[in-house]
Amino acid sequence: MRISRDQSLMVIVDLQAKLLPVIDGGEQAVAEATWLGSLALELNVPVWFTEQYPEGLGASDPRLLERLPTARRWEKHHFGAHDETDFARTLVETGCRQVIVCGTEAHVCVLQTALGLLEAGYSVYWLVEACASRRPEEARLAKERAVSAGAVAVSADMVAYEWLQRCDTDTFRQVHRGYLKPRSGRNLRF
Question: Can you give the chain as a three-state secondary structure string?
Answer without folding.
Answer: CCCCCCCEEEEEECCECCCHHHCECHHHHHHHHHHHHHHHHHCCCCEEEEEECHHHHCCECHHHHHHCCCCEEEEECCCCHHHCHHHHHHHHHHCCCEEEEEECCHHHHHHHHHHHHHHCCCEEEEEEEEECECCHHHHHHHHHHHHHHCCEEECHHHHHHHHHCCCCCHHHHHHHCCCCCCECCECCCC
